[in-house]
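User: Round two. Same drill as before: sequence, then structure, for each protein.

Assistant: Same drill it is. First protein:
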Amino acid sequence: MNVLVLNSGSSSLKYQLFNMKTEDVLAKGLVERIGLDKSVITHKPTGKAKKELTQDLNNHKEALKIVLNLLVDKEAGVISSMDEINAVGHRVVHGAEEFSESALVTDEVYKAIEKCEVLAPLHNPANKMGISACSEIMPNTPQVAVFDTAFHQTMDATSYLYAIPYKYYEKYGVRRYGFHGTSHKYVFYKTAEFLGKKPEDLKVITCHIGNGASITAIDGGKVVDTSMGFTPLEGLVMGTRCGDLDPAILPFLMNNEDLTAKEMDKVLNKESGLVGLSGISSDMRDILKAAAEGDEKANNALNVYTYRVLKYIGAYTAALNGVDAVVFTAGIGENSVPVRKKIVEKLGWLGVQLDEEANKVMGEEKIISTTDSKVKVLVMPTDEEYMIAKDTYEIVKKHNI
């Protein structure tokens, strides 16, 4: 079975085509600037030359047509016809309390995704556009929605409720939802496989740290707690997001700077985090370089970033009543040797010692703690697209489609 995985943004469309029999990626690519002048299409078929195109694409339907044409193209294609695409899996950011697992797209599921738009106004409408485009172009091909929030729905009310009037939870669904769930799920089960352990026997803290970042405490496959909350703004310091913040700061700044709610939201989501603290960049590589050159603000940004990760690891070890493994994934987690070192060197209280040589790794599965460490520390590359393809494959099989 071949599964096409789509990740639709407001003006972009990422895609990968998987052969689920071999679990190989047949092709992948990205369409950018949808709805703008000169859309850019980058197509990378496995074993063939990359192909780049530039043309105007007005909407996601037109973008999907280009993608499908490239997949069956005589030179750049990897399949002979669209009939060889057996299912489509969509990344959908928010499933609220409606979905605790991935779901076959039906009219009811589509309406539920639409209902969740109020909780993810920037993401769910774009995800929905991808589903609509497929429905028009490939009406007989089954589609599956894979939700970023679904894995976290195993949290208890103790973890997901905020201490504000309960009526706001009942009326608006204000609670902790958590995000990056597809990544945390993949990394947890991949870690169990890598360590040769049964998932139900493992307590793991997964650290998805990149430009967007979150940490999740997982006990036997059940999420106990996660750092992102009602929105992806809560928790860790990120590239441009502030993370945890005293809520009284918001009205203080709004009053003193004469900011609207929309302007304040922009400050917190786009102008804070690493870029806000350093005044240099949201990219950790730039922060590390500036800090090494003696820039005080960059050094502060680095220290605040890593300290917040440490705090969550400590808190989640307590929440789990012990931990078997701490796992680093995503852009910074997989690739930043110095950031991992800075964090792991302060985990001595867990009986962890960093293996300096093993830590010199980028984008590979590796244990980076010493053999005598009581808790294992690993680097585990995430693969959200594969997880989406896997869920899609399993759901389509389950429904005998």
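Second protein:
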Amino acid sequence: MKKSTKFIIALLVTVGALAITYRVVNQAPSKDLAADAQMQEIITSGGCLQCHSGSPDLPFYANWPVASGMVQKDVTQGYRAFDMTEMAEALKAGKPVGKVALAKVEKVIMDGTMPKHAYYMVHWGSSVTDAKKEMAMAWVKQHRLAHYANGLAAAEFANEPIRPIADSIPVDMRKVILGDMLYHDTRLSADNTVSCASCHGLNTGGVDNKQYSEGVGGQFGGVNAPTVYNAAYNFVQFWDGRAGTLAEQAAGPPLNPVEMACQSFDEIIAKLEQDANFTKAFLAVYPDGYSEQNITNAIEEFEKTLLTPNSRFDLYLKGEKTAINDIELAGYELFKKYDCATCHVGETLGGQSYELMGVKRDYFADRGIELTEEDNGRFKQTRNERDKHRFKVPGLRNIALTAPYFHDGSMKTMKEAVDYMAKYQMDLNLPEDELNKIVAFLETLTGEYKGKPLTNDNQTKAL
């Protein structure tokens, strides 16, 4: 037999053996398993936690001379972008996986960007085959509908990462009335000049449109005021997440020396007690009287009513196809294409996770301004190095009314903010046309408050 023939036969045998091996190690999970168990097996066989974890189980070649640098880079970038530990634990415990995790997994599987080519060339079993992809995408859809559907979207949009906002959520109207009064009451500040509404005006998009808000004595804080509208949907409050509830958030500013500067709630209560009519109304709702807990509970109940449903985009998701135009729809498709909808998810298009400011580029180095304590983000609370420069993702509802943008209030326009996000989160320089389309989409997110389109008095005055 000729040598060439032997070589061809040997090559065919080798290729056949490799193909058989590839097929064997890439078996999809059993269809008899529950969907969560299938997904758990997929991310395990895919080696996801070898990069997306704080305690990675590094591959066998991690210390090889050439491979070590590549491995370390992949692990660092993977962990910066997405820590899958919580997702893996939720799957194992049979608990709901977060909205952001669902969106991130869905997007990389849809795009075929994970696992990286260099990884599955060595770990064949990590490859996402068509069968695995089908299972994973079905799991995302099933999980999203089971845990996060609110019944408002039309059937064809039921699996979108974004949900319409409800017209209302259950509240105690007696507390709401008290909370409304307290929210606008300057007696919550030491010198009776500042109320919650001073920095979060309901007629100015739930913000004050300043880079930093002004407190008692003309002092300025060091972080941009987030909108109070739709804050009830946030998984935590404040940029650094130091408050777990709206009531905890409401307790912060009155005692902040730069904001309202009271020494204690006893100081506030002493002033309220002098108001006989208000005290009578308060006791009718809270028989045990004034306390920090009762005051902040009333404000929390009021803030639950600050929802802004029925934006044009909500109407589109509900099935009114003519509610947005072709340019705005193209902007939404780009919003999803460029991974914006992996963090800006749910009813408020955000507020569901902490994310790193500057995944692909160093925002703070390029900003050219000295770092402040506020720039540390979540790290302020946890002192965990990974949390440095991570912030609660802001919701994008009514964003056309809430300039300036970012935690440092450095972006004056939506277009500028979108441009920076693309550069620093995705390492993309978007063309003018695409920036304009995404901004057009964002402008469809302005909703209604008390049945009327939400407006901003500051913008009206500027005109």
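The longest strand covers residues 354-356.

User: Perfect.
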